[in-house]
Amino acid sequence: MAIRIITDSICDVPEEFVSRYGIRVLPLTVHFGEASYKDGVDLTIEQFLEKLEQSQIMPTTSQVPPMEFLSAYKEELAKGNEVISIHGSSKLSGTFNSAMMAKEQLGSEKIHVIDSEEISLGAGILVIKAARLAEEKLEAEAIIREIEASRARVRYYFVLDTLKYLHKGGRLSFSAAVVGSILNIKPILTVSEGKLELLGKARGISKAITSILETVEEKGWSLNGKIIGVNHIADFEHRNLLEEEIKKRYNVSEVIRGAVGSVVATHAGPGAVAFCFEAE
User: Fold this and answer.
1) Using one digit for the tens of pLDDT, what is the confidence trace for 70-110?
2) Residue 114 near residue 87 (C-beta atoms within 8 A)
3) Is the whole-model pTM more than 0.90?
4) 258 CB-near residues (< 8 Å, 6+ apart)
5) What is the pLDDT of residues 177-223, one digit of tens each?
6) What domains are defined for the chain?
7) Which residue, among 157, 127, 125, has the nearest Cα to 275 in the 3D structure?
């Protein structure tokens, strides 16, 4: 019997780690009118951004349906595997609830569903940690304890080029979105108790990155010896700048690099950069 880690595409686990640890990723769906695409399967992020630019309508997204979880869970149980299923914040996506419905329908004690209370790579680093612990042959209960403890410590900060898409997608209020209309003002967001929170703003992405790192220092957190995650939406330049600035200040142990998928990009738009870590 093995422990199989299952997640969803809004956790943005980089493909390198999906392949290395055999993580099973169930995709959400992006809809452009009547056309539907499985996130990361039918549509690459480059193709998505091209459609986003050309489309006259705002794309919508939908959660992984319970039946897909039911099928995946049944398959893993049939192989004799135990499942740890980690998903994006239940306050930002209905996918966690779909997973819970499937678990309850099966009534198996070998299925464990965790709400990461995070989004994108903020959730993804928890998925990767769980996969590494499973590789070390820890029991499911021990892995769950570690992930739940880590969940409370994860901090995820991201800088957007605009708040337009978050507002249009209903993830942010109009009053907060107005900030993004000021010339070259870049909003800084974080996730707090599973919800998006507007943390501040800065003139330009470079200054926004500096502002985030100053916040980390003011909180008394150190990234020395830490695993950090850095991801972006079609903005390698600022992703590299963010990583360089972090490395100037701290001796991190590992950098997990990734790209944001189509579902998160629907609400964040192009030109975003982000990083995450576990605070002590």
Assistant:
1) 999 999 999 999 999 999 999 999 999 999 999 999 999 99
2) yes
3) yes
4) 12, 13, 14, 121, 124, 229, 230, 231
5) 455 455 567 889 999 999 988 888 888 889 999 999 999 999 999 99
6) 3-28+63-151 (3.40.50.10170), 154-278 (3.30.1180.10)
7) 157
